Batch of 4 targets.
Target 1
Amino acid sequence: MTDPKRQLAMVIDLNKCMGCQTCTVACKVQNTNNKGMDHQWWMKVNTMPGGGYPKDWDQMGGGYDADGNVVLGKLPDAEDYGGGMDFNYEEVIYGQKGQEVHLAPREKPTWGPNWNEDVGSGEWPNAYFFYLPRLCNMCKKPSCAGACPHNAISKRDDGLIDINQRICETCTTQDCMKGCPYKEVFYNPMTKAAQKCDGCASRVDDGIAPACVRSCPGRAMWVDYLDNEDGAVHKVVNEYEVGLQLHPEFGTEPNVYYVPPIGPLTYNDDGTVNEENPRVPMEYLESMFGPKVHESMATLRAEMAKRRQVPKEESGLTDALVAKRYPELLGELSKSPGGDEEVIS
């Protein structure tokens, strides 16, 4: 697979994501509202720690081994997804049963895209959780493409990964789903082909940011080309190196980067604040983002301290993370869906 001319990348600040699912809904409405796509959530926001979607995806295998060979992991089944939920809208809205009925799935689901919502881990008063938006990682070395026996998966010139539906529908192995360690490839039983987040390619072609990024009310998601040295994505990933890849041990070199959650401090048994221990255990963060998370967190705290001291010092990193102006999140994809340049402040 040839390297793209440029690489589009995303940064997601886990300190700002509030789990509102606006990005999830925006993606669902625009991309996965057709037949056979009920279980497809190209964008979803999982509560961590938690099983995620599909269930326990990070334990299903895939990616590359130490020698650079593609590893075929488990193929998610219907129970791992939980299927699409069919609600009793007619009965509630038109059934004339007043308070006797409430909105609920017709069949009890077994799993779902936000099944562990707000459950988290830890013990009172030091319980903790954070939100993790997940989508196709636009990997530099996509193992889904490496596993595809028909060369139906390729990288575009902008680094987005595309599945040729016409070629894919002739395949029966579903090896691309097995090969993706993030389980971001879905099978459509109606079209007989694999489908996944395409980075809102048609919008990108028109200079418009993906729907998930534009819809985020917390300004927690950014998109831009990595080689744009004036952009916030480049600063966070390449200059300050606080943006981290999810499960780098999979070997696919993702281009979705996460700013790790700092979280609150812990409390001692006597109720005093323990300033030495973060609420979210570093061991857990390391299991998700690798050993670089220690350096990333140290940089975050040091740069934040610059702005808190008197007199305060300038910090390019905190300026980028705050993102006071909305267009800063969009990089070179600052056109509005109407075609005009973005002017929202």
Target 2
Amino acid sequence: MSEQPVIIKRHGRVAVLTLNEPKTRNALSRGIIHDLVSFLRDANADTSLSAIVLTGAGEVFSSGGNVQDMYNRSHEMFAGSPHDMQEGYRNHIQQIPLAFHALDVPVVAAVNGVAIGAGCDLACMADIRIASPAARFAESFLRVGLVPGDGGAWFLPRVVGMPRAVEMALTCEMVEAERAERWGLATRIVPAENLLDEAIAVAEKIATFPPRSVRLNKRLMRQSASMSLPDSLELAAAFQAIVQNTDDQAEAVAALVEKRAPSYTGK
């Protein structure tokens, strides 16, 4: 196992997170879960952070759950009483979707290869997915007789729509990059050698805008997905009032009127 399950590097206001256990095809180990959740839980409090890029080391984005752990019953999620297993899921892999759902910082996934099972769901937790031609997606829990216990039943239909999500879940069919782009699993396909640079470029473009406004844009869209239109409009009015009382929003308008580059302070 690698010394650092998740490598974290900063590029100014952008953080690049790399799942770093290529020997297991970046299966979601204890170490990866711990490092990923720990970073995401602290991200909202980091006002110097505007966007996150998520990718995998080697040729695979993530193979999801570790089949050897399932076979050997060497993890709480796969051993003990039904109650023990339920608590294992709640205390381990289910912390990932909860951390992503609470995250106001935008996430760009650079899907460099296969994203299977929980790996596919992890990609769906990102806000934007950019894929290499080698990217493949599969909601393949039925191959090991399981259901998507990591939040996939919630995230996947929101990305591709319910009929396609059900088809993916019940057939376990691999969705290649071109079809993933058509279905919205990927917003674009770029050459493998340019993938990470392209994902960072998208994240850096996001980071050029007022940080508080970026986060409230994401929060508004996320919360509106489960709201009625009147409730969404009410929340939007509240968020508008908040951002219009920031220095950065005034600077954005002034820069446009004065035809100059803006200078944001995060306030």
Target 3
Amino acid sequence: MSPNLRIAYRFLTAKKRAMLMSLSCIVLGVGMFIVTQATTSGFEDFFIRTILGTNGAIRIEDRIQDTIQSMAAGGYGSDFEIKQPEGRKYIEGVEEPKLVIDALKEFPNVLAVSEVLYGSVIIKSSFKNESVKAYGINLDDHLRVSELGNQIVRGDLSTFNRTPSGAMLGMEMAKRLLLEVGDSFILETNGNNRRYRVSAIYETGVSDIDKVRLYLNMGEARSLLRKPTGASFLQINLIDKDRAPEDAAHMSEVLHYSAKAWQDREKSWLQAFRALGLSSAITVSVFTLIAGLAMFNTLAMMVMEKTKEIAILRSMGYTREDINSIFLWQAVIVLTIGTILGMLVGLGVTYGVSRIPLTITGIFKTETFVVSWNIWHYVAATSTAVVMVMLASIVPARRAARLEPGDVIRGTAQ
């Protein structure tokens, strides 16, 4: 142990109560920062997984057709033109899905593509009628771009796949219509009535999906909706989901189809989660700020009480840098112990919170608190504590370093 560090430790143990105050604030600040970020990020990550598992990373929807942006309005030689605000228009749907899918598979980040056809229908059970949306899918393709296989809560996919008249309903839709696996119902659209049977019931946890979306085999959906060709959209799964905006822009430019990344589709929810995370981080950082103020007060008082000791050290040959380091070492010792204990507290409390039962449905479904085990939460908590405590320690340390032995003896030290 170096002499400066040994002296810092001796000074530190002389102010145990004050240092324990600073230590406890650092522990609380670091620990609560980790817990709040773990819970906020946990719910955000779970929401993202739910959205990606249901609607995919990118959707290819409408064909883009360039239009004339301006045209002459006068006679020959006239410079007068009528300007149009848009240079493109959108034609609904994907006209040649097979060709577009083949082109999409050439993109290196594309993992899988599913063709989807949907339309509004009326579902009729023995209990009530409701307006819903029928989605036609090729099951094997759709399982590669979604988590539908893991969302089945009743029935099974094999029954749906081998039964042309089979259908999969969302849990909320099934409850509202009092339908169970094996029950039959009627779908009506444009005067076309057909009877189907419930093969499976799924639950994504997103109420806006579970109450309005039912799945049919693609061939049956084309016959029911009277759309023998084309697709409503293509759902894409990516290897790297974070690259969705760049890939969507590239796809739109190359294929001349509208491509929308999941970050753009769910922008409002993502902004809400990030605002909540920032707000909670600022709130719990108050503990660390208090720790910094407590450290500042403790070191300032110590400088006033230890002027004679500082004078003796300077007379023995200790430089200003040595005195400065002695007081900064005290802050480092408290900070090191506090951050280690704070991380352990954060780890333990985060684990405890993850075991708390909590039923949530709406934008996703979970039965417990969802937490994120991310090393960067610990890095951010430690960095915040280091910045606040060390900044608060610099001023008292510099003041101690400026003391001169002669001033202390004459009683004129400032």
Target 4
Amino acid sequence: MSEDVKEQAFQNVKTLINDVCRQLNIPDECRLRLMDCERELTVNFPVKMDDGGVKVFTGFRIVHNDSRGPSKGGIRYHPDVNIDEVRALAALMTLKTAVAGIPYGGAKGGVICDPKKLSQCELERLTRRYASDIALIMGPDSDIPAPDVGTNPQVMAWIMDTYSMGRGYSVPAVVTGKPIEIGGSRGRFEATGRGSMVSALLSAKHLCIDPEEATVVVQGCGNVGATAADLLAKEGYCVTGISDSSGGVYSSGGLNLESVVNHKKATGSVIGCQNTETITNAELLELKCDILVVAALEHAIHKGNASAVKARIIVEGANGPTTPEAHKILVDRGIFVAPDILANAGGVIVSYLEWVQGLQSFYWDETQINSYLGRLMTNAFNQVLSISECEGVDMRKAAYMTALKQLATAMCTRGIFP
């Protein structure tokens, strides 16, 4: 993604927030507060490398709004991270938690690095130093990180341990997405993909699409994309294409997903999997299908390729995968878009359950967790769909309307200090 597009990310979110607030006659004191982030922390910290040298890394932790509860949001490790992107993602988290109906605000974090080029020891030292620096605002009652692009349960374990060492006792609720062995939740790893699957099923039901005759294409073969693909296949959908950062594979008769995942584990990419045709990521997005799940990075669909998308439904499993210009093109073409702040809320829903478990030492089994996720996702989808139909707006705008009404109510009820 080009730097100019990334620098525009927060402005795009602010523009839509501003427009919807004005349309809903939300008080200016609420609208203006939502146009900026409440707290922004930038840290530049040294890390000892394996060769004996020292490298300085830059990281961010940004809280957009915590009117509805402690702020919540992932931490990403990626060479293209910048502060404007983190601001945008923090704002999207505020909206996502409100749409899902869970008592959280929104935050996001990131470190400018390439985790693929760091050893496990270097990654641990980087994580612990970053965690110790953002402990200024992080805490189980204030700001709760989770995994995102380039991070995983092990990274969350290091953050939890670092924070706990500073307190003198274990604080499992300081992060979510941890390994189960130290207080993580069953079903958390698959939660975002499962939520995307639920959104896809509900979208298909709304458009009266028969699962036995429908095709699915998935951009992204990480925990979100691979999980969504697997779960949709189990629901009877034919998954014909899937990709990772290197490219994609396609089979008109349907992919053997187990074979694809095993091939990726063995080689590092889906490309070259037996009995598949190799395609580019650009070609994958233009495949004819009923459902396209975009579960990679931001702005995968833009004004340059939106006109070539042939899906009937787009499910945004990633955060911000569609630019505003592209979204307008898709909607004008009659494509049904399940927006990110609705479609990928499964992760934060299960994170909420993990947080409650950490605070209260009370645990649910995986069946209960998946049931809770499905119920909240279904309620949120139906609420947004109802607003979309009643107000004659697309699903993204309806989701923003749902979230901003809840946020405005919370802010007005609490008032302004002092």
